[in-house]
Amino acid sequence: MAVADSWHPLKEPFTTTGAKFQSVEYKWEPPGEKRGAFRFRGVLRDTNDRDGHNVYLQAKAHDYRWQRFDGVQKRSISIEKTVHDGATRYTNTADMRVCRNRGSLRPDNCSHTRTFSR
């Protein structure tokens, strides 16, 4: 039986104007279990509760599409999620970023994308 990787803390949070993903930890699930997924957790914060915009987190495995995990306007919420590559036994790369949803007339602003490797 494979043993899961332990949690790895990130020293720097993901930040952009109006949004922050902090207290971030991640780990890799073992191949053959839980799809060998990239698993992460942390606190997603709306850092500007007066701007009227919501925040969200995006993550993806390999070069797949972004998966979106919405926050709550004017609040902080805990998030723990996984992303995986359904076509392989385990996921060996993942990307993540935090964004502020500025509505349909203006583009969203996102943090720099960080890449994780197994």
Explain this structure to me?
This protein is an all-beta fold. The protein is 0% helix and 50% strand. Strands 1, 2, 3, 4 and 7 form a five-stranded antiparallel β-sheet that branches. Strands 5, 6, 8, 9 and 10 form a five-stranded antiparallel β-sheet that branches. The chain is elongated, with a radius of gyration of 15 Å. 30% of the residues are buried.
Summarize this structure as a short list of keywords or feature phrases:
118 residues, mainly beta, 5-stranded antiparallel beta sheet, 10 strands, 0% helix, elongated
Alpha-beta content class: mainly beta
Report the average pLDDT across residues.
91
Count of separate DSSP helical elements = 0
By DSSP, the count of extended strands is 10
How far apart the termini lie comes to 19 Å
Beta-strand content estimate = over 45%
Radius of gyration: 15 Å
Order of helices and strands: EEEEEEEEEE
Percent range for helical residues? under 10%
The geometry reads as elongated
Runs in which pLDDT lies below 50 for 5 or more consecutive residues are: none
Main pleated-sheet profile: 5 strands, antiparallel
Q: Topology of this structure?
A:
Blueprint: E1 8-9, E2 14-16, E3 19-28, E4 38-46, E5 54-61, E6 67-70, E7 76-83, E8 93-101, E9 109-110, E10 114-117
Antiparallel strand pairs: 1-3, 2-3, 3-4, 4-7, 5-6, 5-8, 8-9, 8-10
Summary, kept brief:
This protein has no helices and 10 strands. It is mostly beta strands and 118 residues long.
